[in-house]
Amino acid sequence: MPDALVQFGSIVVLLGGLIFVHELGHFLVAKALGVKVVRFSIGFGPRLFGVTRGETEYRISILPLGGYVKMAGDDPSEVPAPEDRGRGFLEQPPWKRLLIAVAGPASNLLFPAAIYLALALAQNGTPTAGPVVGTVAPGSPADRAGLRPGDRILAVTAPGAAPRPVRYFGDLRDLVSPHAGEPLAFEIEREGQRVAPVTITPSSERESNPIETTERGVIGVTPYYAPALVAPATPGAAGPLQPFDLVVKAGGAPVRNAGDLERALAKAACAPIDLEVVREGTLPMPGAELARYETVALGGVPTCAGEARVIRLADPTVSSFVAAVEPGSPAALAGLRRGDAIVAVNGRPVRSLLRDLPAKDWKPGVPVKLALADGRTIEIVPGRRTVKDEISGKQVDLPVVGFEPDRRVPVDAKALVAAQVPLDRGLGEIAGLAVQQLREVVRITVLGIVRIATGKISFENVGGPLMLFQIAREAAEEGWESFLFKMALISVNLGLMNLLPIPVLDGGHIAQAAVEGVTRRPLSMRAREVANVVGLILLVVLMGFVFKNDIVRFLKPPGE
């Protein structure tokens, strides 16, 4: 029962709150322009209770999902009361009606800015990743320029611009993204000492979401150290060490991440070292195998062969070791095994399994040649799996390969952050970020609406009340920050949809006022009535399709 109340309350707050904000915009502007507001209702249906102040009744109605504003003279089929003459909505000049109609959607577009501002203010003082490099992707621009894990980035200078200080790691995205192919000067602090500026030219990386694909500049760094997940460079080179052992102690000292391990190995100076590792195994069960983990002490583990390190990191961000191969898959049939290190694909070098091996881009039935570190060359012929693309609605063929760069040994994510600093932003900066975030959400939403209208995104992705209920329920379970964030997204959608020039919606009133303002004469009663009927038919048809999508989505079995 409490869960049901929380779920019902979440949809009431989300949908009811957004409609209330929308109607409040109409109410305030109508009052300011001298239009008589007969009723402002929170909720629909029969009146529960309320008060009358001046000429307006303020009421709470029985159905709490939203509300409405009733203005005098807003029904073209009704004759305004004598005392209301001159103050009815339809009697107003076009510019006043346009402002009143715009006020509702505008409120829905401004409300998210207030949410973003509140969320950013609440985050002030909380820890975030500082401008310290954790992982440098092998072969990336940062790697080629000599950037190292543990380096602190102090400032970035673009060609022809002044140096921009870097306070948080997140600042790097804004400073680097617009400059693909342009040399940037990085001011670096290494081991407490400033070093000569490092010049890095960002490469271009394609970034996709369901709405669009863009290109941005990247240098190949993250604020997180790789886990101390290791493997011998070649089988047996590191004695008892096995692929994907997670080092938790080295030389008696605790190891939280690859940075700690690197310091321990450097201190050992190629001498054997005692390690304590967490090792993954399997626990056979009837019809299945369960993963189990055990702590293993390894004494005198070799660290070098000559001057070459034989203990390598096995995390897929910085290595090309294969973590899992599905039995009977194309990869297994080709001879790929857990612990194999891929060094090249069709002649192209592979240094990072996640960065350099986009197996999702392989073509079903098209052979792929893999060169392995042990000297073998194998050929994988990807299988085929046909699925329905959730965005376009079309059938697409996906490759089936059967190996993963996954990491199943449990790792403490907090221990991987290279450095943390408290967020400390002023009100002006936070307000600017809120406006920037709102502008980007509006842009993406408009682009999405256009792509749906042009058929580039399937209409099946559009949802209605059932989807809203599901979103509100899930957001409430995730916490108030997620709830407010999703509330802001839906508010933008509600505001923009109401601006569509469909009679009955605010966009229809805006279009009508604009036409009358240009032609200098009001639309005839017949034209208004026909427009309203057409608008209602369009809304009913639209809601029919939306309800169909909701029902199909609701009845779809999990996992499909």
Automatic annotation (TrEMBL):
The chain crosses the membrane at residues 6-29, 530-547. The keyword Glycoprotein does not apply. Its cofactor is Zn(2+). It is a multi-pass membrane protein. PROSITE patterns: PDZ. InterPro entries: PDZ, PDZ_6, PDZ_sf, Pept_M50_Zn, Peptidase_M50. The lineage of its organism: Bacteria, Pseudomonadati, Myxococcota, Myxococcia, Myxococcales. Residues 99-156, 287-353 form the PDZ domain. Keywords: Hydrolase, Membrane, Metalloprotease, Protease, Transmembrane, Transmembrane helix, Zinc. This is PDZ domain-containing protein.
